Amino acid sequence: MTKQEKKYFRVTKQKGFESNFKTYHMDPSYDHFRILFNKKNYRIEPTVISYRLINHWDSKGLIPESCRAKSQKWRYYSLVDLVWIAIIKGLREFEVGLPFIQKVKSSLKVQFGISEFSELEFYISWAAVQKVPCEILIFRDGSAEIATIYEIEDSKEKIGLEAHFNFSLNMILQSVMPELDLQPNYSLWVKLEQDVAKIVNYIKTGNYKEISVEMKNGKVETISTTELHDPKSQIHGLLRRGEYQEVSHIQKNGKVLHIKRKKTERL
User: Fold this and answer.
1) How many CB atoms lie within 10 A of CB 152?
2) CB 196 within 8 A of CB 241
């Protein structure tokens, strides 16, 4: 996936994102969805957004090109267009200025295949077809990210996220197509107990050779983690770190291979 506007992702993408993204946009088996999301079949009723407002946003370069024959009064938009216009509407309701919204558009505008907003379209497919909970995050500098709630929570846990506000992509889709049931499916969302979450975090770091637990009355009582360090590490420096219960070394043929330290945490 090539991006010129965004140099990096603030939100950590799930494993396989790049390949899934390319598969969606290039695999012929997804043609039906790409046509469905990009065909300009929808019009915006004036009771939702006035013509005057649409024309004003259009004059500022915020609105995607519509499909309108000279003999027709109505402008027609794609589903992806309508989602973006709903984002504009939501930002304006928070009194966000048009220059800032232009930055958001530049950040989200990633051309790949037939879609002007290819990343947005990819997440629309997840939200609409698989009902995966997805959100659009907008940061103070006008940059924007689209991600599943699982990616967002994982990023908060691993690296933290800068101040932002967000829109539910699922709710936007539901408002655009009220005749369909597009409520997100949270069945994959599992809230872990604090002790289990801590064990999972230790495993995810990949820093530990061994992780063991001791249980009491069905609950985790202690967690022990074992790390291997380079033999050049200063043992006396490790010993001064009181939180480590054991520090030893692994030796072969008179040569120290690793320094081993074990930490036991009581919950």
Assistant:
1) 21
2) no
237-241, long-range: CB < 8 A, 24+ apart: none
What average pLDDT does this structure show over 119-140?
93
Give the C-alpha separation, 84 to 64, whole Å: 9
Closest C-alpha among 169, 191, 194, 195 to residue 182: 169
pLDDT digits (tens, 9 = 90+) for 171-188: 999 998 899 899 988 776
Which residue is it, tokens 């396989």? 16
pLDDT single digits (tens) 197-226: 677 677 767 777 788 888 877 777 888 887
**What 3-state class would DSSP assign to 218?**
coil
**Nearest residue to 21 via CA among 126, 134, 150:** 126
Coil, strand, or helix at residue 166?
Answer: strand
CA distances 32 to 6, 28, 58, 95, Å, are 29, 8, 29, 37
Mean pLDDT of 78-96: 94
Token match 């957004």: residue?
49
